[in-house]
Amino acid sequence: MYRGSKSDIWEGGHREPNIISYPPVIEPNSQSNHMVSHSDIYRTIADLLEVDLSDTEAEDSVSNLPLWQGMVAFLFVVVFGN
User: Fold this and answer.
1) 69: exposed, middle or buried (C-beta count within 10 Å: 0-12, 13-18, 19+)?
2) Could you give the C-alpha distances from 79 to 1, 9, 24, 69, in angstroms and in order?
């Protein structure tokens, strides 16, 4: 019925829509097919608030702010595990 399993990004895994509205940064009615994670919200909000995080804070988080601003420069690390 669905592609993939628990550790995949497909429907059978963890693929869910991420709907965000932030008019000062995100162009209205824009869409993206880039893969993001809910854990990225921590570092993204820190970037929006211009808060510096240490290397030990939110170490699994990547800021999505460049993606929201239309600048796509991401390094994705795919790790499989349970």
Assistant:
1) exposed
2) 24, 11, 33, 26
Q: Over 90: is that where the pLDDT of 50 sits?
A: yes
- Where are the chain's structural domains? 1-82
Tell me how far apart the alpha carbons of residues 57 and 26 are, in angstroms, rounded to a whole number. Answer: 26
Single pTM value for the model: 0.67
Task: Provide DSSP, 22-68.
Answer: -TTTSPTT--------GGGHHHHHHHHTT----TTSSTT----HHHH
Please tell me the distance from the alpha carbon of residue 34 to that of residue 47, in angstroms, as a whole number. 19
Mean pLDDT, range 18-26, rounded to an integer: 85
